[in-house]
Amino acid sequence: MTLQAATRLESELGVSAEVLDLQSLVPLDKAAILASVSKSGRAIVVDESRDACSVASHVAAILADEGFARLKAPVQRITVPDTAMPYAPSVELPLMPNAERIVIAAKALFP
Questions:
Q1: DSSP 75
Q2: SS3 content of the chain, % helix, strand, coil (to 5)
Q3: Fewest C-beta in 10 Å: which of 5, 68, 73, 102?
Q4: 80 forms bridges with which residues in the sheet?
Q5: Which CATH number fits the domain that encloses residue 46?
Q6: 104 CB contacts (<8 Å, ≥6 apart)?
Q7: Which strand (E) or helix (H) includes residue 63?
Q8: How far apart are CA 33 and CA 11, in angstroms?
């Protein structure tokens, strides 16, 4: 999904998006996160969890605390809404992060 969004951003906006796949959360590779945001000054964090108390919130907090001077725009988080998750895949799927939601968030970062 993130690679699909990156491909779309390249073709639709001419924006080259870097996808950083965090392989472990402990230890979290803060250096890679901060180095990545230093390139464009923008970040979209995608997480298949709810936003509250999620990895996305933690990464956004790191960027705000340690990378604020590098940011040119607010950090965008693409997560599951803070709601009860349905059991039916047909109802669950639209709530999950997807390439379309990522592209929409990215377009807002590059007016």
A1: P
A2: 50, 10, 40
A3: 68
A4: 50
A5: 3.40.50.920
A6: none
A7: helix 55-66
A8: 25
Range of the domain at 49: 2-109
Where residue 84 falls among pLDDT bands split at 50, 70, 90? confident
Instruction: Determine contact, residues 55/91, Cβ cutoff 8 Å.
Output: no
Place of tokens 């390139």: 39
Tokens found for residue 73: 């725009």
Q: Which amino acid makes up residue 59?
A: V
DSSP code string of 83-98: SPPPSSHHHHGGGS--
pLDDT of residue 73: 96
E strand intervals along 9-80: 44-50, 76-80
Distance, first Cα to last Cα, the chain:
23
Q: pTM (2 decimals)?
A: 0.90
Measured CA to CA in angstroms, residue 21 lies from 35, 79, 83, 105, 110 at distances of 14, 16, 26, 18, 22
